[in-house]
Amino acid sequence: YVVEMVIKKTNFAKEVVSVESGFEALNYLTEIGTDRDKLPGLILLDVNMPEMNGFEFMERYMNFSDDVKNVCQIMLLTSSIHPVDIDRASNNKYILKFINKPLNASKLKELEVA
Fold it and tell me: What is the pTM of this model?
């Protein structure tokens, strides 16, 4: 909820869709299918989430079509500073950036440039 509030406050995105878990996110993407107008341009994913962690989400995300994976950019937003997590994220070609919490306006500004 904090991340959603920061994004809305800074007008970073036209629309913000928040879900409670990785399962809900996967279901959301499945429902959208390959409709490029509805697919999120950016997915902020945490390493630690209810029901499934961010890496488990990524394992299932790999099953989506290239049409989906080419539209959705994934950034890992986390409080984890564990080297294994950083290395694992760096080795996944679909995770574009590893961002440490807390998310703030200056970190969002960096994402706009990226």
Answer: 0.87
